[in-house]
Amino acid sequence: MATNDTCCSIVPYFKIAEGKIAEFKALGDQMVKKTSTESGCLYYGFCFDGDVAHCREGYDNAEAALIHLDNVGELLGKALEISELTRMEIHGPEQELAKLREPLTHLSPQFLVLECGFRR
C-alpha cells in the first residue's frame, strides 16, 4: 500500500549534562516559541524523563523541516553545548527524505522510510 503523505518527523533524543536540565528546558521553551510561528510545523514539543529529553516534531514536508532547523539553529546549537544527541531519526516518504539526507548528514541520523499509511 502506497501513501501520498509528505509528512516528515524529526526524532531526536538528548542526554542532558548534569546540572543543566533547567537550562535545557528554558532553551526548549524558546524553541517552542520560535517554532510556533512556522506554518509548515504540524506539532512540536519536548518530553522529559530525568536527564533524557526528546523533541517530538512533525512537518508538512522536507522543506518545512529545513525551514525549522534554520529557524531554531542557534538555540539548538546552545542546547547541544549542554547535552549530547544520543539518537536521531528522520521519518518520512523517500521522496521527502531524499531532500534531507545531504543537509542533515552532520547529525548522523537514521532515515526510516514511510512505505504505507495515511494522515488526516
Walk me through the structure.
InterPro entries: Dimeric_a/b-barrel. This is ABM domain-containing protein. This protein has 120 residues and is an alpha+beta fold. The chain has a single domain, classed as Alpha-Beta Plaits. 32% of the residues lie in helices and 33% in strands. The protein has three helices and five strands. The protein has helices at residues 21-35, 62-81, 94-97, and strands at 8-16, 41-49, 52-59, 83-92, 110-113. The chain has a five-stranded mixed β-sheet. Helix 1 (21-35) runs antiparallel to helix 2 (62-81).
Q: How is this structure best summarized?
A:
32% of the residues lie in helices and 33% in strands. Helix 1 packs antiparallel against helix 2.
Average pLDDT number: 96
Share in helix: 25-40%
| Total number of helices | 3
| Weakly predicted, low-confidence segments | none
Distance between the termini: 17 Å
Looking across the biggest beta sheet, what order are the strands in? 2-3-1-4-5
SSE sequence, one letter per element: EHEEHEHE
Kindly report the CATH topology: Alpha-Beta Plaits
- Structural domain tally: 1
Percent strand: 25-35%
CATH architecture: 2-Layer Sandwich
Tell me about the largest β-sheet.
5 strands, mixed
- Count of β-strands: 5
Radius of gyration: 14 Å
